[in-house]
Amino acid sequence: MTMLSFRVPDDDAAEVQRWADALGIDRSEILRDALHRHLVVLNGEADARRWEEQPATDAERSLEAVADWGPAEDWSDWGDAEG
Questions:
Q1: Is 83's pLDDT higher than 60?
Q2: What's the half-sphere exposure (Cβ side, CA atoms, 13 Å) at 83?
Q3: Tell me: the pLDDT tens digits for 14-37?
Q4: Contact 20, 29 (CB under 8 A)
Q5: Which residue has the higher pLDDT, 24 or 70?
Q6: For residue 2, how far is the Cα from the chain centroid?
Q7: Integer distance in angstroms from the first to the last C-alpha of the chain?
Q8: What pLDDT is recorded for position 71?
Q9: Mind giving me the DSSP string for 28-45?
Q10: Which of 2, 48, 49 minimizes the C-alpha distance to 28?
Q11: The whole model's pTM is what?
Q12: Residue extents of the structural domains in the chain
């Protein structure tokens, strides 16, 4: 794990500390979680841009219809069979 250090406004630091105290966790855990969530959002946005810039080819989309087939057989009573 890498340590990051950065400055934040005093009000934000106080609010993070209040939440950490209220939740009974270290403020670093709140900051790690916030950073992770923000990175997930940024990566999702970048991924969406890549899909817009380079959409799936016909070959890549060829199995889309298969997804609509559903299960090939009804296995709902499979666990009830006696053997």
A1: no
A2: 3
A3: 999 999 999 999 999 999 999 999
A4: yes
A5: 24
A6: 21
A7: 53
A8: 67
A9: HHHHHHHHHHHHHHHHHH
A10: 2
A11: 0.64
A12: 26-55
